[in-house]
Amino acid sequence: MSNKKIALITGGSRGLGKDMALRLAENGHDVVITYQSQKEMAAEVVATIEAKGQKAFALHFDAADFKSLDNFVEQLKQTLESNWGKSSFDFLINNGGIGATIPFAKATEEDFDRFMNIHFKSVYFLTQKALPLMNNNGRVINISSGSTKFSVPGYSIYASMKGAIETFTRYLAKELGPRGITANVIAPGPIETDFNNAAIRNNPERKAIMAANIALGRVGEAKDIGGIVAFLCSDDAGWINAQRIEASGGMNL
């Protein structure tokens, strides 16, 4: 996909989503990012992308507020038309999410519903509602977690929703295949960002323990994931479909 495309990245104001947006811009693509609360940080990402010579725009999107989904899709339509003169885009990267360490015995229905809405229900239906706006031969990239393959105490809700995303992605690949749209999952291992209250960055002992279980001897950084997204959105990755790509540096081997 050598010519310029447009990507939609949820949760693109910081962390993994920010790096994904910057890497796609470096590859010559335009980007729409969403933010939930970090409007100023989203504006900085947009400015950085524009400085690279690409177009970018930031939209507010609260994945926890399911009733706002139709309004968001309508805003996306208007943004594509007013900024690009187009009615469609190419790459959907479902990256937005939250983190919390919640022991199973203490998990509440409220916790469950919040994680389900943000990590599964909104991803499922945003993808469905975005499909009419997606060009053929596009890409859907969903973000899962290493915690679907190795158990991390306190992540039973989060990992269960990510497991659902992995199954959903295979179905997407099957049902979108006739349109030439691929669907894949990236499953990061531990990444040092501000995710889950910067749980890794703020706990050097925990960080060291994690690094010791990774073949490459360190935890990940945001830049370790952005390049994978950029690759999956390239022509070279066109034959990769329905795959769970773990990006953990070789954890728990």
Task: Name its key features.
alpha/beta, 8 helices, Rossmann fold, single chain, 42% helix, 253 residues, 7-stranded parallel β-sheet
Task: Please characterize this protein's 3D structure.
By secondary structure, this protein is α/β, with parallel strands linked by helices. The chain has a single domain (6-247), classed as NAD(P)-binding Rossmann-like Domain (Rossmann fold). 42% of the residues lie in helices and 17% in strands. A 7-stranded parallel beta sheet has the order 3-2-1-4-5-6-7, with helices on both faces. Helix 1 (15-26) crosses helix 8 (223-232) and helix 4 packs parallel to helix 5. The longest helix is centred in the middle third of the chain and has 22 residues, at 109-130. The protein is globular, with a radius of gyration of 17 Å. It starts with 5 loop residues before the first strand and ends in a 6-residue tail after the last strand. The mean pLDDT is 95.
